[in-house]
Amino acid sequence: MGIRVNLDVVMAQRKIGLTELAKEVDITMANLSILKNNKAKAIRFSTLESICEALQCQPGDILEFVKEE
User: What predicted TM-score, i.e. pTM, was given to this entire model?
Assistant: First the structure.
């Protein structure tokens, strides 16, 4: 699996929806949904920074390394 994106978990903890976060981060809902559903192949540091700022979290709260079996 490699890197798992836990954006949905952090969003639920902060009680923020996809539409609200997309507006705050200035990213399309489609791209944010790809991240949220763990389908993204890459993320720009500037996008990660904006998400962390909006959710008041650290990158490690969103990204998790999962060892492949």
Answer: 0.89
Please count the structural domains in the chain: 1
For residue 33, the enclosing domain spans: 2-66
16: confidence class by pLDDT, cuts 50, 70, 90:
very high
Long-range contacts of the stretch 35-41 (C-beta < 8 A, 24+): 35/5, 35/7, 36/5, 36/7, 36/8, 36/11, 37/8, 38/4, 38/5, 40/5
Q: Which CATH number covers residue 36?
A: 1.10.260.40
The residue to which tokens 């978990």 are assigned? 9
pLDDT computed for residue 1 by the predictor:
61
